[in-house]
Amino acid sequence: MRQTQRLTSDEVGLARAAEILRGGGLVAFPTETVYGLGADATDAQAVAGIYAAKERPSFNPLISHMGSFESAQEQGVFDETARRLAEAFWPGPLTLVVPVAPSCTISDLARAGLDSVGLRVPAHPLAHALLQKTGRPVAAPSANRSGRVSPTDADHVLGDLDGRIDAVLDGGSSQVGVESTIVACISGTPRLLRPGGIPREAIEALIGMKLEAGPDGGKSPLAPGMLASHYAPRARVRLNAASVEAHEAVLLFGPEAPKGTDAGRITLNLSKNGDLVEAAAHLFSYLRQLDASGAATIAVSPIPETGLGEAINDRLRRAAAER
Ligand code: TXA
Ligand code: MG
């Protein structure tokens, strides 16, 4: 259990909230859509804490909240359409999914291993002030436990997360009450990934074209490979490995290693002392490193199904299945 502080919407509260975020803690804060559960997006261990607090059984890419369009452009690559949308609707209830920039500092875990990044500049004055003070991208899903409704005031947040997060910045009620509209500008026609606070019509009027349907946004299914919603390694992934072949790359968890691990091509340990939060923080970057070794197979030692282990195993099972 943590002691969850309720912070007031003044200079003292804001300074404390920014300090907690910069120290790797969890702070719920108001945006004009819903309250977000924030962590330093550049700190994978802090981001893993979001999943632990929410008890979310799988890793989704998270929205990184930014203080300005300028700082967002350090994280993502904005094509002409994305730039026009950002200039028209930011700050506001719009999230843009764009390719990662070479200078991107947002952690693999916050992006769920993808080469794209979800960015939003919220309009709520407290959110804006907090992001300016923190000076880093802040990853934040809605500040509720998994499976519950999104919170629109500090009492809702505490009802779900009291004792599980470091603080909530109390800014009264969120006005919009539904999540941000998510538009992907990755290649070709922009796609509506999720309807939300900015109506589709307003976006289409601005860019002068129809948005294509995304996974939740519309009727027609996405063409495979057009917008991967999950990172899939090139190598085959073999779960619950009891032993390792010489040509395999190895992903360990905990102090025990499967037979033959020493002969493996390359070995990384998600957490030597079996800490699932640390393991979650390393998951996507380690998968990428093992994949880059050129090994045809990544052998993964067993990981418990408790706590964040459920989300880690969910992700690994998808990686093992997607071919
Ligand atoms: O209003 C909102 O959007 C709130 C406030 C806190 O900002 N946040 C929110 O976050 O609703 P969340 O985690 O519930 O929804 C984030 C969604 C993911 O489920 C995913 O669909 C999409 O954003 N997303 C983020 N990054 C993405 C990416 N790189 N590729 C595809 N989808 C992405
Ligand atoms: Mg949510």
Taking the sheet with the most strands, its summary is: 11 strands, mixed
Give every kind of bound small molecule, once each.
Answer: threonylcarbamoyladenylate, magnesium ion
Structural class: alpha/beta
Helical element count? 9
Helical residue percent? 25-40%
Poorly predicted sequence stretches spanning 5 or more consecutive residues: 216-226
Give the radius of gyration.
Answer: 20 Å
N→C terminal distance: 41 Å
Structural overview:
This protein is of the alpha/beta class. 30% of the residues lie in helices and 18% in strands. It is built from nine helices and 15 strands. The chain has helices spanning 11-22, 44-54, 69-75, 80-89, 125-134, 154-161, 200-207, 276-292, 309-321; strands spanning 5-7, 27-30, 35-40, 63-65, 94-99, 116-120, 138-139, 167-169, 181-184, 191-194, 212-213, 236-238, 249-252, 266-269, 297-300. The strands form two sheets. It has an eleven-stranded mixed beta sheet, with helices on both faces. The longest helix is centred in the C-terminal third of the chain and has 17 residues, at 276-292. The chain starts with a strand and ends with a helix. The model is unreliable at 216-226 (pLDDT under 50). The chain binds threonylcarbamoyladenylate (TXA) and magnesium ion. Threonylcarbamoyladenylate is lined by residues 31, 33-34, 36, 60-63, 95, 97, 111, 114, 116-118, 120, 140-142, 179-180, 182, 193, 229.
